[in-house]
Structure formats: structure tokens, C-alpha cells
Amino acid sequence: MGFHRKHTMPDPEWTVLAEAGRARILETPVEPGRQGEPPRLVEELADPHATPVPGQPRTAEELERFARQAVARLKQAHAEARFEYLRIAAEPRLLGALRREIGKHLDLHRAVLEWRELHVVPVDAGEAGGAP
Questions:
Q1: How many angstroms separate the CA atoms of 84 and 77, rounded?
Q2: Contact by Cβ (8 Å): 76, 83
Q3: Which domain holds residue 93?
Q4: CA atoms of 90 and 4, how far apart (whole Å)
Q5: 8, 14, 89 from 73: Cα distances, Å
Q6: CA quadruple 67, 73, 75, 81: dihedral positive or negative?
Q7: Tens place of pLDDT for every residue, the chain, 132 residues?
Q8: 96 phi/psi in degrees, rounded to 5
Q9: Rounded CA gap, 108 and 13, in Å?
Q10: pTM for the full model?
Q11: Contact predicate 26/42, CB 8 Å
Q12: CATH number of the domain that 50 lies in?
């Protein structure tokens, strides 16, 4: 009697970059022969009630609403086994809202969760120093 070894693919890795009512979900290739390739965009989320402007102050209500929307999408993707490992980089005020929503609505007992603060630099800040 023989047995077959089940071939398993590496666990998908997702990274969420979130700021100003906008989030990009990226997937890092983990398949053999694809390590080192750049992440691919899986999905982009936007708060339908606000025009996202990087670095612009958001109300607590807007942050909570967008965090709920983003976590609902992550919950659906996790239930579909679309990712196993998750990294989240978000601007500090949104990071807190995301942590609360994930804690309430998303059971990540299998996933490795990594949090990072994303510091947004306004577009015109780079021009403030002037070019030589």
C-alpha cells in the first residue's frame, strides 16, 4: 500500500497599505521560482464617501467607517483562504481604527499579523526645499 504526499503551495502573503480613505492590497509571490518578484496589486479600496487626499486630516467617523469597510473585505478574503500571512501598514490614526475592527470582526488565529505605521508625506512637502 502506497501513499501520496500531498503537494502544498506556500501560504499567500498579503500586505495592506492604507491611508486617507484609500487602501491597496498587494500579494507577494511565494511560489517556487517567484520569490523576489515585486508584489502584485490584488485590489484597491476607497472610501466612497470621501475624496482621499494623502495627509489630509480625517474625522474619527470617517476613519472608523473606512476601517470597517477594509476589514469586511479582509474577512471575506480570509474566509476564502486568499491569504495566510497579513501585513498592515497604515497612517497612525487609521492604524488604531483598523486594529479595533480586526480585533472585533476578524479571527486571524492562523495568520501572522504584522503592523507598521505608514507616515504620509504630502506631495508638495518634497518641493518645499526647492531644487538646486
A1: 10
A2: no
A3: 13-24+31-119
A4: 44
A5: 25, 13, 16
A6: negative
A7: 444 434 455 578 899 998 878 899 999 877 777 777 888 999 999 887 765 565 566 788 888 899 999 999 998 998 888 888 888 898 888 888 898 888 887 776 666 577 777 665 555 555 545 444
A8: -60, -45
A9: 13
A10: 0.71
A11: yes
A12: 3.30.420.60
Residues shown for the chain: 132
Longest dimension (CA), the chain: 76
C-alpha cell at 5: 504526499
With b meaning 16 or more CB within 10 Å and e meaning fewer, what string describes 100-118? Answer: ebbeeebebeebeeeeeee
Do the domain assignments include residue 44? Answer: yes
Is residue 37 domain-resident? yes
